[in-house]
Write a structure and sequence with these properties.
- The strands form six sheets. Strands 21-22-1-23 form a four-stranded mixed sheet, with helices on one face.
- It starts with a strand and ends with a strand.
- It folds into two domains: about 200 residues, Enolpyruvate transferase domain (UDP-n-acetylglucosamine1-carboxyvinyl-transferase, Chain); about 210 residues, Enolpyruvate transferase domain (UDP-n-acetylglucosamine1-carboxyvinyl-transferase, Chain), CATH 3.65.10.
- The radius of gyration is 21 Å and the shape is globular.
- By secondary structure, it is an alpha+beta fold.
- It is built from 14 helices and 23 strands.
- Bound molecules: ligand EPZ.
- Ligand EPZ binds next to α1, α5, α6 and α12.
């Protein structure tokens, strides 16, 4: 099992570029199934989650190869429509393939993704939407079978602006008959990236990034090349790493409009931030101000940044409140931070964090992807050596985050354990 050894205390300084977005790559990889031909994707992050997507796609009969900086997906022939249980369990967001497989094959079979480290993660909104689009859903022994003669356009109002449900509806509706409207749609930038990719292939979608999305079904798509948007959560993580080490960094290849709620909070904490066209420069201050965070669907403060910001607030001056409104179990990282001296209590959806002067080194265990990133930040701040185990979670969603941090002056090494 791999683990990190982090010798804390170094200020992060210098320049680094972000990788492509994990949460844009997964739905766009799924969308490439809709094209009976080749698709060329650039800036797909080399992470465990994209590797799992490739494994599932190859089991469907799709050929995946690498050409220079491109991932090449050849979906000319598909000879299977079932997502295997073991891979579904390894990555619950593979449910995003369902809409694309149904869109292409008019049937799909998969198991309930099951809960994960941050919550129950139901898919009722996905399945209800599929039924409204004329897709028959049968459930037996934990397996879900979807089938239809043809996917029909319809108007679907989501109880909650679910990112995955919004994406799955788009994927099922792209090659459908008629027009589909999604109301109360999620507005995340990754959905705009998905719309832009599908429209470049010849799809006809408008409204991504707003509460209402319109998909006019089309009957064929063509082969394109496309560059995935930068990963706004990785960028936020690097900005917080510089903040917690009182550093001064520049990150290139960013989209400022994706980072507004995070930039706003970092400035509230006292960081000085300069923005250029696709570049951000952050100068942290020695004593950080406490502040309050409420996670909300985009364009509110992103839930994926909650644990990462929680680590920074843990060494700010004063008491901060966090309210986690999206997932019901996203505070597990706080128990690990307590081993490093954090002073926090959780009351329902609210975490109360009393800032301490500095974290103390310890042996800690990653509880989930973003909780694991929070532990890296605390270790960068601590004086001494921290060991972070269970880093498989972190490797799922961050491309070479240790190398990026090392480039900025961090002392972090990956080790092979027993
Ligand atoms: C996506 O997950 C992201 N994952 C998550 O990032 C992110 O935290 C989340 O959106 C919110 O922004 C990917 O894009 C691969 P949701 P998703 O459906 O689609 C409830 C990370 O760290 N819900 O918007 O699963 C659900 O329980 C990951 O990169 C239902 O009740 O999120 C949750 O409380 C973590 N029924 C809320 O909606 C449903 O059918 C938000 O979930 C679907 C969701």
């Amino acid at each position: 099992m791999q683990y990190y050894i982090v010798k804390g205390g170094n200020k992060l300084e210098g320049e680094v570029s972000s990788s492509g977005s994990k949460n844009a790559s997964l739905p766009i990889l799924a969308a490439s199934i809709l094209n009976k031909g080749k698709t060329y994707l650039k800036n797909v992050p080399k992470i465990h989650d994209t590797e799992i997507m490739y494994q599932i796609m190859e089991l469907l009969g799709i050929k995946i190869s690498k050409e220079d900086e491109y991932v090449v997906i050849d979906a000319t022939n598909i000879n299977n429509y079932e997502i295997p249980d073991n891979l579904m369990r390894q990555m619950r967001s593979s449910v995003i393939l369902a809409g694309a497989i149904i869109g292409r094959c008019k049937k799909a079979k998969f198991s309930y993704p099951g809960g994960c480290d941050i919550g129950v993660r139901p898919i009722d909104l996905h399945l209800n939407a599929f039924e409204k689009m004329g897709i028959k859903i049968e459930e037996e022994n934990g397996k879900i079978s979807c089938s239809t003669e043809k996917v029909l356009g319809n108007t679907i109002t989501l109880d909650f602006p679910s990112v995955g449900a919004t994406e799955n509806i788009i994927l099922a509706a792209t090659l459908s008959e008629g027009i589909t409207y999604i109301k109360n749609a999620a507005m995340e930038p990754e959905i705009v990236d998905l719309q832009n990719f599908i429209n470049k292939m010849g799809g006809n979608i408008v409204g991504a990034g707003t509460k209402e999305i319109k998909i006019i079904g089309t009957n064929s798509l063509n082969s394109v090349e496309y560059e995935i948007m930068p990963d706004r959560i990785e960028i936020g993580t690097l900005l917080c790493a510089a903040t917690i080490t009182k550093g001064n960094i520049t990150i290139k290849n960013i989209r400022i409009e994706h980072l507004i709620p995070v930039i706003y909070k970092l400035e509230e904490m006292g960081c000085k931030i300069d923005l250029k066209e696709n570049e951000i420069k952050l100068q942290a201050k020695d004593k950080l101000n406490a502040c309050n965070i409420k996670t909300m669907p985009y364009p509110g403060f992103p839930t994926d940044m909650q644990p990462i910001m929680g680590a920074v607030l843990g060494v700010s001056k004063g008491t901060s409140l966090i309210v986690e409104n999206i997932f019901e179990n996203r505070y597990k990282y706080l128990a690990e931070l307590k081993r490093m001296g954090a002073k926090t209590t959780v009351e329902g959806k609210t975490a109360i964090i009393k800032g301490i002067r500095r974290y103390t080194p310890a042996k800690v265990e990653a509880t989930d992807l973003r909780g694991g990133a929070a532990l890296i930040l605390a270790a960068l701040n601590a004086g001494g050596t921290t060991e972070i185990t269970n880093i498989k979670y972190i490797l799922r969603g961050y491309e070479k985050i240790d190398k990026k941090l090392e480039l900025l002056g961090a002392n972090i090494n990956i080790r092979e354990g027993e």
